[in-house]
Amino acid sequence: MARPLKQSRVRLFRAFLAAEAGGTGIEFTIIAGGIGLAMLFPLYLVGSMLSEKFEMIAAALRHQNN
Hints:
By secondary structure, the chain is an all-alpha fold. The chain is built from 2 helices and no strands. The chain has one domain (2-65).
């Protein structure tokens, strides 16, 4: 009983590997993920620089109001 189930799983897995219908979607997903990872570090740096600028502006406004 276990043998036909195992064979059908192997056959299904081989069919999955041979199928190319969803290849384009997977490729675009991988490309989008790579672009996202490439953008992560620069956006982190820009975000921290902007945060520092806004903190300086807020401190200047607080100092001016006191």
